[in-house]
């Protein structure tokens, strides 16, 4: 895509700090470095978000995530965990509309990253959960 910053980065038109590259993906340091080692993994093929992946591209891109995550862990043996984050569409905090996966090393509870999952267990009956699951299941192709 002509005006996509991540396409330009993967094509070396804009400088970046490369972590890993092959024919399918380009992985580079996020300039924000939420924590040291914060890496973005992008498909070289321009796809807007997870909804635009075909099965083949998804298999190829996501198969590379553990390899890159292990490299981050080996480079920073002091990390205590790693978040894998993929934001899709603006409401879900996607800010660059070329699909990308954040690999965010975690060093402690005090590092500069957090996520919140609300607990709404008491708001759903077993029947409501079954209906939601059934609705999604019918759409899986």
TrEMBL record:
It holds the Pfam family HIT. Residues 5-115 form the HIT domain. SUPFAM superfamilies: HIT-like. InterPro entries: HINT, Histidine_triad_CS, Histidine_triad_HIT, HIT-like, HIT-like_sf. PROSITE patterns: HIT_1, HIT_2. GO terms for biological process: nucleotide metabolic process. One of its GO terms (molecular function) is catalytic activity. A motif (Histidine triad motif) lies at residues 98-102. Gene3D superfamilies: HIT-like. The active site is at 100 (tele-amp-histidine intermediate). It comes from the Bacteria. PANTHER family: ADENOSINE 5'-MONOPHOSPHORAMIDASE HNT1 (PTHR46648:SF1), HIT FAMILY PROTEIN 1 (PTHR46648). This is HIT family protein.
